Each structure stands twice: as C-alpha cells, then as structure tokens.
Amino acid sequence: MTALRIDELTEAADGLLIARGGPAGGEFQRAVIDSREAGPGDLFFALRGERHDGHEFVGQALGRGATGLVVERPLAVPDGITVLHVNDSLTALQRLAARRRESRPDLRVIGVTGSVGKTTCKELIAAVLGARPDGRPSGRFRVLKSEANLNTEIGLPLTLLRLEEGHERAVLEMAMYAPGEIDLLCHIARPQIGVVTNVSSVHLERLGSMGAIATAKAELVEALPPDGVAVLNGDDPRVTAMAARTKARAILYGRSEQCDVRAGEVEGRGLDGISFRLSHGGSSVAVEMPLPGRHHVYPGLAAAAVALAEGMTLEEIGGALREARPELRLRVLTAPAGYTIIDDTYNASPPAMIAALDLLSDLPGRRVALLGEMRELGDDEADGHRRVGERAAACADLVLVVGERARPLYEAAASGQAEARYLDSVEAATSALRDELRPGDHLLVKASRAVGLESVVEALVKT
C-alpha cells in the first residue's frame, strides 16, 4: 500500500489546518477512523458522529501503535506523535482522498449506484475486470474495489486511500441518503464510468418522491466527463431517462430489445445459479453464473457492459462471469432437522423481496416464506407490501408474516393461492417454524434489518 506522506496531508488540509505538531517529516501506513483497527504507523482521523466522538478514542488508537492524528481540538499526546489540528476532520479525510485520486490520472474509476443491488453489481464488475482472458481470476486489470459497506462520504475516501501504484481500475460503490451526496463522492473519485442499477422506493420516506430518488442517483451520470460511459439499466424507465442527463456516451443493459447489452434465454437453476445468452453488437455467448436467482442477470449484464467499454471481448466476459464467486449477503444454510434456510435478512425492499421470492419459486419441495416489514418506503408502504404479498402467494406454499406494517402483505398473500398466517412477534415466528418445517423444505427469511428476523435463523440453525 502506498504510504501517506505528511506533505500530502498538509497540502490536502490547506484552509482547514489550524496547527501542526510532532516530527517534521515521515509517513503513515494507513488512514483509519476506528481506533480498534489502528496499527503501528497508522494515521487516526478523529471523526465526530451522531453517537460517538473519535476524540474519545485517541488514546486507544495510540496504544495500538498509531503515530499520527487528525483532530478538531487540542489534545495532550506523547512526544513523537504527529498531530494535525483541523477545523473539520472529515473534510480533511475527503480532501486527502481526492488528492490521492488526482495523483493518478491514468487510473480509471467505475462508480456504481442504485436503489438495489449496488454491492453485487460492484463485486461482479471487479471480478470481471480482474479476470484473465482464460477466465481465471486476477490478471486482465489490477482492480481496487470498495470493501464491505465502504460506500459513503467516509467509506469511499478510505477506499481511495488504499490505492497503490499498480492499480489500474477502481470500482467504487456509491450510497445515497440525501441529495448532493453522490455529487460529493464523484467530486472525490472523478469516475469515468457510472453504473446505475435501478430506482425503487428505497428511501422514499426520506426523499419524498420517486423523482427525487432518480434525481439523486443521476448525480453520478451528470458528473461523468464527455469521454466517459454511463451504463444504465434499460429495463428501468427512470434509469433509461438518465441518458439525457449526461455528457457521456450511454450504454443500456437489460432484457428488452432497446438494450445494447442484452440477456436472452434466462433460466434459473435454483441454488446452483442462472444461465442466459449474452448478446452485443450482433454477437452472443452462452453464460452460466453461479449466483442464485434470476435477478442476478442484471448485475451480470452491468458487469459485461463495463467490461465491453474497457475493451474486453464477449468470450472473455462470459468466461469471467462463469468464474466469478462474489461474496453475497444471502446465505444458504442447512438446519439440523434437514430443511434448507435461505437467509436474506440483511435488508429488504419490494424489488429485493420479489427477487428473493422468484428464487424460492425455482426450488424443489415445499416452499415456505417468512417475511417481515419493509421500512423507509414512505407513500409506497402499503402498495409495496401488497405487491410482495401477491408475489409470495404465487411463489410459496406457506407464507408467514411478522410486523404491523406488513399487514397488507399478509392480506394480499392470504387472498392468493398460498396458506398465509400473521404472527405478532419474532418469537412466535420461530415457534411456528419449528413446528411446521420438515426435511426437504426450503425456507426464505427476509425483512428489513430492524425487524430482527436474523434471530429466527440463528434459533433454527441451532435446533
């Protein structure tokens, strides 16, 4: 990893720097914001958050070996520690990352945003770009990618500060909670390629309208240079319309005829993955992906579109998609009693719920769905739950529903072909499933994280 130099820090902090103390020269191994992750030679940024103030953990960071601090107030520290006193630690972190990015004009940055599927899309793009022509991972490009959930105004700068001289591409996930946030991330990262996965009612409660969500997501394509590429979901009208909001060339991906990069003959193979025919410019190639669920065709197509823009061939891309093994939040577990649990409790929205139910419908045996509330849907709350309930009735044999906000889901499921039950607590759901499930059954568990359905999965796996 390329070390962080003091001269970089002071230049990046120009206009923010109040005072500086400690050795005149030197460099640091990494930038960290969590004192528990600090190590010898690291630079600790003391950030103020809603619940925690990093200044309270300076001692812990120094105790773990950090040799530099970026702080917003004077602190007593041991001799030999470099201290930069600034008026805003987060802005200093962001400026340092922007400076590191500017120092690499040869680096090509791919930004990824959207309401649903950003992480899987980012992982597949990185996997395909980092594939050799023979399909084995690592070799075509050396790729830096966002790790875990480092996709915010804090996480993206930390990712860029991991940039090394050998990196040729950077694939950066960009989250959005309010207007202007993606624009800020683009100012730091300067992407040449922007990928938008979809626009859905996620965060509708916060932003107020679907148009406002689309406008906020479009900040990515608006930031692209004229010689850049906007990779847009051609099956989502709100995303397709973003082609008119960018100076860059637009590539549409999807299953409809208007798409430049298209999938046909899509087949779900249960938990073994999906297959489809990938087409572009009059040529096509058969693709098998080991990712379960037909909805994964979309991140696969987005990755293919980015790779084509970067000069890869369809054959290379098909081989890379076959070999890609991105880590998914969805887990497939086998309970001691002999049934299979599809644990997708990380979060939920109507499109993500329906995609998970489509996967369930591809599985053999009796299909059971434990579904809970979806949060932050705003005006789409009732309709969103009803749409999921209608799909659940078509995909599952038994639908169990938890949460007062999810009553429309239960009512829609109960009016369909499936047996449906409403349960008043997570504990009641655990008890009902213990009585109900049999060897060979497949259980899908999904809701917004706040519902706490992961405790049901934990209990069933221990049973």
How is this structure best described in words?
- With 463 residues, this protein is an alpha/beta fold.
- Helices cover 33% and strands 22% of the residues.
- The protein contains 17 helices and 22 strands.
- Helix 11 packs across helix 12 (314-323), helix 14 runs parallel beside helix 15 (407-414) and helix 16 (426-436) runs parallel beside helix 17 (454-462).
Q: TL;DR of this structure?
A:
Helices cover 33% and strands 22% of the residues. It has helices at 6-12, 58-63, 89-102, 118-129, 155-160, 181-189, 204-207, 210-217, 219-222, 237-240, 297-309, 314-323, 350-361, 381-395, 407-414, 426-436, 454-462; strands at residues 4-5, 17-21, 27-28, 31-32, 43-45, 68-71, 82-86, 108-113, 143-145, 169-173, 193-196, 229-233, 249-254, 261-268, 274-280, 283-289, 331-334, 340-343, 367-372, 398-402, 419-423, 442-446.
Question: What is the topology?
Answer:
Layout: E1 4-5, H1 6-12, E2 17-21, E3 27-28, E4 31-32, E5 43-45, H2 58-63, E6 68-71, E7 82-86, H3 89-102, E8 108-113, H4 118-129, E9 143-145, H5 155-160, E10 169-173, H6 181-189, E11 193-196, H7 204-207, H8 210-217, H9 219-222, E12 229-233, H10 237-240, E13 249-254, E14 261-268, E15 274-280, E16 283-289, H11 297-309, H12 314-323, E17 331-334, E18 340-343, H13 350-361, E19 367-372, H14 381-395, E20 398-402, H15 407-414, E21 419-423, H16 426-436, E22 442-446, H17 454-462
Parallel strand pairs: 4-5, 5-6, 6-7, 8-10, 8-11, 9-10, 11-12, 12-13, 13-14, 18-22, 19-20, 19-22, 20-21
Antiparallel strand pairs: 1-3, 2-7, 14-15, 15-16, 17-18
Helix pairs in contact: 1-3, 4-11, 11-12, 13-14, 14-15, 16-17
